[in-house]
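Example (one chain per record):
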Amino acid sequence: MLGQVLATEFMKLRRAKVTWGTLAVLAMMPPGIALFMWIVREPERAAQLGLLGTKASVVGLEATWPEYFYMLTLVFGVGGMLLLAFIVAYLFGREYRDATAKNLLALPVARHWFAVAKLGVAAVWWMALIVVVLAEAMVIGLAMGLPGFSAELAARGVANVLLASAISFLLAPVVAWIAVWSRGEVAPIAFALVMLALGNLFGRTGWAEWFPYSIVPLLVGVVADPVGSLPAGSYVVLAGTFMTGVAATILQLRFADNAQ
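Predicted structure:
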């Protein structure tokens, strides 16, 4: 049954422009980072072109591979939290926007399969974006000839990107529940924005490792120096957040009044 529901969910996306839109948004990040790297490396030429060479130097950016991987981890981690919220809000909220939820939930299929299938589609969608854009980023970095590259650094940098991306996905089911509960796409995206702000706020306190939306900023080093590894308690919090979000979404679909 899950296979049929999953195939149906993928078929819904075959002509959707939003998939290409998310790819376009994320694919713009590596060239943007590369532009700042070039500004730092060529400040005089950047100044002649009217670019922000002075400001780029002030923020401490360095045109090196370690800094490049740091920026990529930031994009996939913190930026990924917001982009994934948009993806999940689209997958769940569009059923209410398009008035198809009542038909979907009337099918002789256990409702939990819809939640599992949509989250599965979100995971595949997110992973496809990561693979494509990470490959693009590596090509751009190599083409720029940034100093400091090594196989060990690349492996560690890619591992950090994948870890930050995976943590972002663990937060997605809560967004799915907000989409089903609110029967739309606006509330879950607003929720994600508020949580990003709170994550930044709590990240500056001693509670950062316990607040799920502060863990990615803590790992990346947005609010303080990046941590080498996350404490075990943070993984427990993330696992609990994921399972709570999945359970809440399934229970909302199964027992709540989903009339449109």
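Caption: Residues 131 and 162 are 10 Å apart (CA to CA).
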